[in-house]
Amino acid sequence: MNPLNEKVNAKIQEYLLNEDLWIGIGFGILKIIMIIIVAALIIRVGNITIQKVLSLRGKSPLRISERRENTLAKLLSNVLAYVVYFAALLMVLETMSLDVKALLAGAGIVGLAVGFGAQNLVRDIITGFFIIFEDQFSVGDVIRVGGFEGTVEEIGLRTTKIKSWTGELHILPNGSIVEVTNFSIHNSTAVVDINVAYESDIQHVEEVIRDLLRVLPAKYEDMAAVPELLGVHNFGPSEITLRVVCETAPMQHFYVSRMIRKEIKLVMDEHGIDIPFPRIVMYNRDAKDPSIGKGEQSGG
């Protein structure tokens, strides 16, 4: 064997069998594991602290809305995770004997160069900040953004997650959110049309419906006010249409509308008020009708 190779192999063997080397590697691995464990504990304790602080704030006279509390809780949890993981990464690199200061200086220069090409990312972050700062919408709100409509699952500094009615999760960059329709800020309005037959006594029907509407808010807590019967809304081919409107809690107008229809149907059955059905009048042009005088015409 070549004496040079033997010398190299001897040095490698001596290096690998060095007790101090493996002790240092072992301590380094243990330190990295401890850093990861401590980071996870900090995040866990931090999330619990955030929830406690927001719950205590909710009991104070100057409390913020529940929807805003949920938004702030998710946002603060995300920010806490980013900060802790970044600090943990720097500590791990330092444990591996890497020059963290040089890496940060180089990352700053690279970040400056990347920033010019990452304008969309910067725009997403700035837009996300203003969405949260201006409280345009919060977690749990039902919103419409462009062609997407659903419940806000999460708001971050870069993206917003919207869950549609059928279960799809849409992840939208905040910079693409230009126009937002929020259905959860103000009360909704339930509009219910009731059809009755022309033969019905309209005044009696209105009295029966008004008596019913007065007692409904005590039965359905989602009604923000006593439903109002506006009166006759339309004349149809075989029915008279009455309209009822009711102010409801946000996004509860569909449920309240169904309950009003159910209650009105029950009370109309109880008072013998007929629900109209389609009617068709057949006319035979060839048949002779003695009731039609000479020169008169009839159609149907």
Automatic annotation (TrEMBL):
Topological category with respect to the lipid bilayer: Multi-pass membrane protein
Gene3D superfamilies: 1.10.287.1260, 2.30.30.60, 3.30.70.100
Transmembrane segments: 21-50, 71-90, 102-122
Protein localization: Cell membrane
Superkingdom: Bacteria
Positions of the Mechanosensitive ion channel transmembrane helices 2/3 domain: 78-119
The Mechanosensitive ion channel MscS C-terminal domain, residue ranges: 191-275
Family according to the record: Belongs to the MscS (TC 1.A.23) family.
Name this protein carries in UniProt: Mechanosensitive ion channel family protein
Lineage, top ranks: Bacteria, Bacillati, Bacillota, Bacilli, Bacillales
